[in-house]
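Action item from last week, closing it out:
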Amino acid sequence: MVKFSLETIRAKFRRILIYGIGVKLLGYYEKLIPKYSLIGDTAFFDSKQFDWTTEIEANWVLIRKELDELLKYRDSLPNFQDISPDQADYTSPDDLWKTFFMYGYGIKSEKNCQRCPETTRLIEKIPGMKTAFFSILLPGKHIPEHRGPYKGVVRYLLALKVPEPKEKCRIRVGNETRNWEEGKSMMFDDSFPHEAWNETDGVRAVLFLDIMRPMRFPLSVFNELFMKLIAISPYIQDANINQKNWADRLEKLFAQEREKEKV
């Protein structure tokens, strides 16, 4: 027989209440975003609208080197649903989407950032950067169609490893499908329905960022407020706890490997 403590019941009720109210508020708010957006309301965006993408692309090889070090421990990296179990329905219950988080909704993973100092240095210069991680799709991975939870951010992907044939490694946002090119940026609105495929025999890896959508006043202020509220929600706080646990686990693994190298 499954037993539920009073605290567990309260926590579940709190989640349902907060989530229900939050979804309704976001629904009303998101209808205003296209009118106040400074970058339009399209599925994909031109990365040249953001000056900082030039420096990121210029340093993609440097970022790739830090990624390559992590890929030595590929099988030990957390799956996306290990960090965010609430999204397991669309990520699918397999081990083919690996992650390495540096930031999540503005919350910094100190240990992971120390592991990737150059990448951290570059992403921390980006105005409005809230989430940053290496997103790694193993061979055969398909992320089913879904949409992001909030239109107030813009999704940025820097392609770091793109296996051949490129047409088998792609993303669809809305009605448009694109392929990745190593060292090049891709930006889109993840509130549009989207899905991704890696139908190759190789590993596809990108630097994955969520940044604040540039908007006119007063929605620019409300956008900051909403992001802060999302960051303290149980949904994000639980993911942050999971991330800390995985960072500790990986740090122990890295320490063990360093000891082996000394022998």
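Closing note: The first strand starts at residue 44 and ends at 45.
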